[in-house]
């Protein structure tokens, strides 16, 4: 057993060195583009309900607060998908899980376009969420495992830019389609695209070489821990408990705030006195800012791989979210504040993904990222509901945005604590450091 483990670690060390020493090649770029495409349409579908909300309220004669459960039903599905499909991918592979999740959210997005009632919307968005939730952690894990170390954080955050760009594109697509073809057209567009992408994944996407390197040995190694080893338990092995819990707090607060803003920003900006079409376009700037912020933060993290960088990003996010509430009816001030807030909020979430992927080793990477996102999705479920409650009782939209600054400030504090608890070299916990995952009994 010891010889097999030693050989496995030696092979992984050689593999890591070969990955880290060479420049980006065609296969790595292909993985980056394909995974970025998945997250592009993931972002489009995840944000679609926020963009169609004003039209739904008018056409289905609903109170605004009634859409809170619809937002949250999709997020419940995303949470379950992340918790289930992350560990599954650590057992059977990243590629098959990513393909099936992409098909799943494509099919149910198409079915959402057929919904004629609040109950139908709740059901279809729930099942759409299963696929959306399972796709992201596997795209993150696969991208991280293909990239050389000096580009890894940038690659993960740039790939996550696909999510922000997809969400931003949703605003422009919704603004163009809804007046002419109705709200259903947004979900048709968001359903056809992932089905096409799934075919491309089947044809061109390779499986993670690092996963394949560890995969054959994993069953026997896990038996060394006991035949009923629960893979999620390994997130708390070997002094990981404190870091895992802090990562969960960061993801919970970050995604609570992100989905709070995604769900209600078009409505809040409209309520502030901005015409609905312009409100949608202004909200899309939030996602465009996120694309810029993700790239910038990724480059910083490649140089300074630390949660302290993340703490400053979330602190900045809190400031600019607060400033959105002070902009009033000024389109220029709103545009600047929303763009900067998106840069910080979404950029920080991309950075959190990269740091989580760096912290957890290969055999539990999809589980670590998946459960962090799954716990975060609990926050994302609560966010839209909190927004609905605030809108019911609070007519002053400024105070709603002021309240939205609180979660990212908590994420900032958790990131500072994580920076003090993290290993002196976070990278040592990442690719190739499998010795602390499985301890051989003989």
Mind explaining what this structure looks like?
This protein is an all-alpha fold and 442 residues long. The chain has one domain: Growth Hormone, Chain: A (Up-down Bundle). Helix content is 80%, strand content 0%. The protein has 15 helices and no strands. Helix 2 (26-59) packs antiparallel against helix 5 (118-146), helix 2 (26-59) crosses helix 10 (241-271) and helix 6 (152-181) packs across helix 13 (331-359). The protein is globular, with a radius of gyration of 21 Å. The chain starts with a helix and ends in a 21-residue tail after the last helix. Residues 1-13, 216-228 and 427-442 have low confidence and may be disordered.
